Amino acid sequence: FSFKIYVHLKEGSGADGLDALKNKPQLHSMVAKSLCQNASGKNYIIFTGPSITSLNLFEEFEKQEIYCCGLLSTRKSDCTGLPASMLNNPETPQSRGQYRIRMKGNMSLICWYNKGHFRFLTNAYSPVQQGVIIKRKSGEIPCPLAVEAFAAHLSYICKYDDKYSKYFISHKPNKTWQQVFWFAISIAINNAYILYKMSEAYHVTRYSRAQFGERLVKELLGLEDTSPSH
């Protein structure tokens, strides 16, 4: 197979340049809309991090029959239109598993306590549906179903990071497009190893991630038969 990776980011101060977009919250919404442009009308549930979670974006997605569940941060999220009373921590102490809810139509804002206050915005789960978070030391902690669902899907990202974060290319160039390029290369190699482990070839050779990366680089550079001293 032949694969190509294209990275197109304009440096500069133009309307579509990075200088004009990098520090604006709208940029994250633009990325989310672009990634979900083919999901309209399919009743998908999208899980989002704090930088993407916002009431305006979720309402826009709902009109396209795309539903959302996102972690909300008073520092990183666009909190426009959300009640201030839910964004402030209550003065009275709370027990683990306690939560407060505010609803507007299908949208729910949940403030859940577990060694700290965590806020979730969702139109994909009913806030009255109960779930549970299982901790190895603490046992079961009650929570709304939206919190359980978010934690379950977040674990995919954590597992990926735990296994492959140390294999990301550490080169840090100054140009933004170069940073994105090497990040994309790192993801491509890690994903290639995952596909390799799912193939029949893995049962024959069983390369580790480090061995796979070394072999891949040698093949790309045509150095398969070169001695270790070179």
TrEMBL record:
Official protein name in the record: PiggyBac transposable element-derived protein 5
GO molecular function, one term: transposase activity
Entries under Pfam families matching the protein: DDE_Tnp_1_7 (PF13843)
GO biological process: non-replicative DNA transposition
GO cellular component entries: nucleus
Originating organism: Cathartes aura
Domain (PiggyBac transposable element-derived protein): residue spans on this chain: 22-193
Matches recorded under InterPro entries: PGBD (IPR029526), PGBD5 (IPR042423)
